[in-house]
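Question: Send over one sample?
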Amino acid sequence: MLTASFNRMAAVILLVTSLASWFSYHVARNLVLHKQEAQLEQSLLLTKRSITAEIDRFRSLPAIVGEDARVRALASDTSRVAIDAANAYLERIVEQTGPADLYVLNAAGLTLAASNHATPQSFVGHDYSFRPYFRDALLTGNGRFYAIGVTTRKPGYFLSSRIDIAGAQPVVVVVKADLSPLEAAWSAAGVRIAIADRAGVVFLSGDPAWKYRPLQPLADQMLERLLQERTYDGVDLARAEPISSTLDASRPADTSVIMPGADRRLMAKFAPLQPDDWQIVAAADVRQVDMIGALWAFAVFAVGLTTGAIFYVLRQRRQLVRMRLRQGELLERMVAERTHDLACEIDMRKRTEEELRQAQQGLIHSEKMAALGRMSTAIVHEVSQPLAALDATLATAGLLADQGRRADAGERLTKARDLVRRMQRTVKHLKTFARKDVSEFEILAVDSVIRNVLELASPRSRAMGVDVDVAAGKALAVRAVSVKLEQAMLNLLLNALDAVQDRPDPRVRIESGRIGEQVEIAIIDNGSGIAPDLRERIIEPFFTTKLTGEGLGLGLSIATTIIKECGGAIRFEDAEEGGTRTVITVPAANDAGLRLEAAQ
């Protein structure tokens, strides 16, 4: 009788525990799947932002390059002199902005000039009229296209702009951007991210096994179009195995898809990327999801059996005291083991969450470093002026040494050392930016800043025969970053010297004074002045009125940014005697001003 009762109770407990285990398996599996799906959505969002940021670096570059006189001249002048000038200009732009290639096509699709003109894989003379980015630029003004280069065999993202020239046929400026750093970053991070074109062919992937494979079988018409456009020149797409033979092309963009494989099962999530009609694919292995579900099912099953055993022992308490004691010891041991296992699992999950947070911070920092890459042109422009001053100072020191004037040569070498230290401080700003720190502000005497700027610009002013007049107010102080404020003022002073270069009586004057809570520093010249309709545009990046190739139009943009960081502003006015009056307004440092005045 006791045996029959035990058998019935055991059957009930086993049934209830089995049902609970089955339910726990599916609940735990669905929870983990939802969490993994949320992680995939986050990966899609971060990937979309990083791709958009990388492409936006070059989106406006073809149109900007097309405004240069050397490029526009190719529409009517294809002489060797004009082509050489355009080649040199394009090569210089590539060195400073970092695209893979930059080239100019005529209205027939023939390459006239290219940044890689001096390499064995030069684009010059090649016909690219079959490329969609060329046809789209002629029809609509702009084009974009991702493909493997038929000349270099290197993939890239092509951005094109049509440049219309009055009285001549238009030309097309094309920039080829290299997106492979994104692919390398995904591979290094171990994430399974891929980008597919509108045909469904994967062209960027963190998993090398996915590259240049269609997500699903390609239609014959689509395959024929890809072959005609030579999108993936050298890749046999007809023999490429689809990543999934069961993928539905009409699926909603926000749904998850399980893609079975020979050695793994992947959950994939898709997101559209406009305006190219691309697809971003984020995938993760779901085998561990089944393992976690099984672990939870086993835990529930074990707990159910334990509960049933405890209930049975309590019911048989009076008859089986000894058995109850032994059973109690066994149950305590089992509970301790399960508690230890659960504690280990909790620790494992905490470590996993911490690793995910660190990975996310790493992606954010990578995007910031991409922003630093976008600042590279401004950095070169900022360092080039101290280098020019250093070169002039060292040259002067050499002449003085040849003349036996060692004391004067020593002074020049001391100034050269100061310039080197100045460039070291500039480089320090880059390290500060990479560490996510900010530059330290300090209290600066305005007359000291003006003296430093005049010293840096003195070789240029002496060569032009211009004596810069200074009328500085006494005991003026501001709170700013020394090297940055000097750089901004030096840019404005050099612009003033350029403005009076061809004047018969060149004059440049620096004035400073305090108006209320602001310190104003004015640089006045008697040049030709600035047209009223250009005053708002001259501070835009890459805008310049110079046609000699002496700069890229970044000086005023950099100076404006520096002064804004100091809490000030720059404005341009007409000078009383003609020319331009450039005014820098910076908040005054009251306490520092009082100390300076007391010291005097």
Notes: The chain is about 50% helix and 15% strand. The first helix runs from residue 2 to 56. Residues 61-98+100-177 form a domain with the Beta-Lactamase fold (CATH 3.30.450.20).
